[in-house]
Specification:
This protein is an alpha+beta fold and 607 residues long. It folds into 3 domains: 2-203, Immunoglobulin-like (Sandwich); 235-424, no CATH class; 438-603, 2-Layer Sandwich (Alpha-Beta Plaits). The chain has 20 helices and 21 strands. It starts with a helix and ends with a strand. Residues 432, 465-470, 473, 478, 481-482, 485, 507-508, 580, 584 line the site of guanosine-5'-triphosphate. GO terms for molecular function: diguanylate cyclase activity. Its EC number is 2.7.7.65.
Length: 607
Amino acid sequence: MIGSAGRLIEAGVTPARWSAPGAALRGFLLIVALLHPLPVPAQDAPAPLPTIPIDDLTSRTLRAPAELQVAPGSTALDQLPTADFRPLTSGQANRGITGQDHWVRVRLSNANGTEPQSWVLHHETSYLDRLTIHYADNGGPLQRVSLSDRAPFEARPVNYRTLALPHTTPAGGHTDLYVHLGFDKADSLTLNLRLTRADLFHDASRRENLVYGAYFGAMGMFLLIAFIGSVILRESVYLHYAAFLGVSMAMWAMLNGFAYQYLWPDSVYWHNEGFHIVFLLMAITALQFSRGFLKTPRYFPRVNRALVAAQWVFAAGIVLRLAGVYVPVLVLSYLGLTQLVLLSVLGLMAYRRGMRYARWYSVAWLVYGVGLAFSVISAGSGFLEWGMKPLDFAQAGGVLESACLLIALGERLVGWDRARRRAIAIANQDPLTGLGNRRALEEAFDRLEERVQTTGVPVFLAFIDLDHFKAINDEHGHDAGDAVLIHLARILRNACRPEDICIRYGGEELALLLQVPHQEQAMEVTERIRQRFARESTRFEGTEIRHTLTAGIALALARDREPDRAEAIRRADRALYEGKRCGRNRCTAHLPEEQADAAPSLQGEGT
Ligand SMILES: Nc1nc2c(ncn2[C@@H]2O[C@H](COP(=O)(O)OP(=O)(O)OP(=O)(O)O)[C@@H](O)[C@H]2O)c(=O)[nH]1
């Protein structure tokens, strides 16, 4: 190519001259055409270079009047003047997967500019094997700069994540550009050559770094949360999510060109060959995460088998790529990335099977799909300028998707916590009366112990036992006995404050934990219950069952930690026994030994 350009310059054929057809010849042909009715044969004369004024340049994508020529093979520079160039429209810009050579030509005119115009010509996507720019100022000899992402990063004239060339067009002059783009191996090519005023280019580059930095910051935070989750919860699904995030970040770092700029500037191999491997890794980790998250082996065994098979196919793709196979792996990797959208359907299926948290999972893949669709539509329709912008949509979709997946993981955890609490509540509940059981009493003691220490208000324990309950069972049947217990539980609940603890201690024995400043108040509550239970008989299958209860009350928790728990239970039990002994249907408070000796512990005698 250098040879062609050299020959061209030696022969004095500069691009400016190709664009200046002979006016005399044109005039002659016009006269012949007017005089002669026969059609004029096609001209081989070089077309004038299309011109874009750049004297008030900010930033623009090179489009028509810039022209494009697609060559089936390679076109030499000296063939360009007569080559078949067409306007480079947005619709023409996305070339799909191609191995063809592409030329773009244009004249940048600073004819009206009183100052030289410095600009940077850069390609929007980071993956481009060859970007050769031939340029000439004011019709001078053509210069050539070869940029390639197959060269080490430091060989670039500008420290920028994509291929870029800085240049200055003289005041009142112009620069002719012949840009040659292509891949050594076929890949998806976009013709987004962007021309930006030099000072704006550096500002834009700083802004881009901020935006992409925010992306990597957010993803890094998700990754950290996932990693901490995996350590704390010891659940592989968090690790798989972390792996998926890590691979996504690597993929976008590569697509954006940051990986080559900052991570592996010397590794030409990875910058070029790593793309499809990372695409496939992303598909593999996404499926691995999905299988664990939705428990597909258990709930969707057939789907699970398909997912495992897909993972193996993608893994085989990686091996093939490492072995040098290209096009089939390229297609497979694109297929893998686009098919991930289908995971939203799997999420929906899981949601319909009762996995509430699967809805966020489903939304996540839908968002991913929307980002992807945006890219594909803009690539195919010219609806948006193709280049990094649609890719940015896909990337934004990716970060939103990752956030949704994190929410899904959180919701799954909350669901588990709810289920765990429900299980604990069930384990602590008496199924007949709905009151807490003996386990709940132990927990209540623990809770109240703390409250007593902070508030200083003591807690009293009341043991409540039905009188002659055996007789009720014997006379009316066991179900009637159950109805009586349920009736008593309802009275207990109604008489107590929400913070009081009502327990079925066992059999026909119930317990209350009341945090009140004085024993008399505990007695009052228990006495109210006793009276009401004696007053309100239980109706069972048309029969009125009359009943009474006996209660024993003792101090259970005090700030000085006296008595201990077992002693408190013993004391309440002793008071209850005392009540039974004295004729039942009464509330009896436990009194300290010295008072007990002096006075009977009987209180609130039955009515
Ligand atoms: N229906 C019913 N009866 C129960 C339940 N749990 C224990 N019982 C009965 O409660 C009765 C308790 O009888 P006892 O311990 O002799 O006491 P009591 O008849 O109430 O006599 P005192 O306590 O001395 O007044 C037994 O017949 C048990 O079968 C239950 O869940 N439902």
